[in-house]
From TrEMBL:
Top-rank taxon: Bacteria
Pfam families: Chromate_transp
Record GO cellular component, one term: plasma membrane
InterPro entries: Chr_Tranpt_l_chain, Chromate_transpt
Full protein name: ChrA protein
Length: 397
């Protein structure tokens, strides 16, 4: 028994070490994160086989929330149970959470929202998202039908900007994908995955997910506590966004800027800073929370926005093998993944492009950074540093 506990502790420390290293070095957004995960967890350490990893990625793309964080949690759960998932999440997320909380506290104390290097970081965001879309489109929209789904999703997302647009588009794309691809051949030879989670736990987690989504707004209306209102706003944003971190920006903007929790300048400044740190873009919530209520607000925001992702991945993993062998689900996933590409294209235009590319100089800087990333294959951290320096220098022209 003692050896068993010792081995479990060793396993958890290994997960913490590897995920923390990824948390410090994973620049470039969710698609880049999945590449880092594949290289570290699959290719080097062989914690999962290729097919299981691909299916886990597809599942997390289907679920609302930060896809790359959910993949990391899923890998940790498969490796060492729920504690493994928690440790994997902490390691991958904590570096950027700390950095953005510190940035928000400095901003509150000194204020530097108009400096050129911040605008340079916004231009970096354009380049990173554009590069991510190219990679996703190649893999997720290979045929005319899925290209058409992506186009329709982009049009609806841009022209019908409401709180329910994204989830409506995703659901509609799932139906279209089912109708088009429900006869898709399923690879029944793929390895059967086992998880240290019971279906009972899965049902409990899914029940908590939907229960909090319903109960939190009621509690918010019945009380005047600011922290309850904050928790509800972040939890709802984390629950209703599909397609990863960039797509959460419009939801967070609508929750916090019109209500006066923070100014548009503070929001855009934090978004620019979020591009400069590694790890998931959902940690942008830590910045918003810290601007509103210091480091405690930052931690509260982080827990609230990531909690839905935790509940959903723990709730669906016990049913994963059944889901991935179902033709109807597989077809729906193909439609959903195509729609995610369209949603990201819409997000690239608004708010990312419209708040970043304001002059010909901005476009020149974006073109240079895009070439460095895509054609010269330079590491993402070099792109971030170059963008900040370029924005600083261009501010004097």
């Amino acid at each position: 028994m003692k050896d068993k506990h010792k081995n479990k502790l060793k396993l958890l420390l290994e997960i913490l070490f590897v995920s923390t290293r990824l948390g410090f070095t994973s620049f470039g957004g969710p698609i880049a994160h999945l590449g880092y995960f594949h290289d570290e967890y699959i290719r080097r350490r062989k914690w999962m086989d290729e097919k299981s990893y691909a299916d886990l990625v597809a599942l997390c793309q289907f679920l609302p929330g930060p896809a790359s964080s959910q993949v990391g949690i899923g890998i940790g759960v498969m490796r060492a149970g729920i504690l493994g998932g928690i440790v994997s999440f902490i390691g991958f997320t904590l570096p950027s959470v700390i950095a953005l909380i510190v940035f928000a506290l400095l901003l509150n104390n000194y204020g530097f929202t108009d400096v050129g290097w911040i605008h340079g970081l916004k231009v970096v965001a354009v380049v990173v998202v554009a590069h991510a879309i190219l990679g996703m489109a190649k893999n997720l929209t290979p045929d005319l039908q899925r290209k058409s789904i992506a186009l329709g999703a982009m049009i609806l997302t841009l022209l019908w900007q409401t709180a329910i647009t994204q989830i409506t588009v995703i659901l509609f794309a799932g139906v279209v994908g089912y109708l088009l691809y429900n006869k898709q051949q399923i690879d029944n030879q793929s390895s059967k995955s086992t998880f240290p989670l019971s279906r009972r736990l899965g049902f409990i987690c899914l029940g908590l997910f939907f229960g909090l989504l319903i109960v939190l707004p009621i509690i918010r209306e019945a009380t005047t506590l600011n922290w309850v209102a904050m928790f509800d706003s972040f939890y709802r944003s984390g629950s209703l966004v599909f397609g990863g971190g960039h797509v959460v920006l419009p939801l967070l903007e609508r929750e916090f800027v019109p209500t006066g929790w923070l100014s548009k300048e503070e929001f855009l400044t934090g978004y620019g800073a979020a591009q400069a740190v590694p790890g998931p873009l959902f940690t942008f919530a830590a910045y918003i929370g810290a601007v509103i209520n210091g480091w405690k607000g930052g931690l509260l925001a982080t827990v609230a926005i990531f909690l839905p992702a935790f509940l959903l991945i723990l709730g669906t993993l016990p049913f994963w093998d059944t889901l991935r062998r179902n033709r109807k689900i597989k077809g729906s996933l193909m439609g959903v993944n195509a729609a995610v590409v369209g949603i990201l294209i819409a997000a690239l235009y608004h708010p990312i492009w419209t708040s970043s590319i304001l002059t010909p100089l901005d476009f020149v800087l974006a073109a240079i950074l895009f070439s460095m990333l895509v054609y010269w294959k330079l590491p993402p951290w070099i792109i971030v540093v170059t963008g900040a320096i370029g924005g600083f220098l261009f501010s004097y022209l």
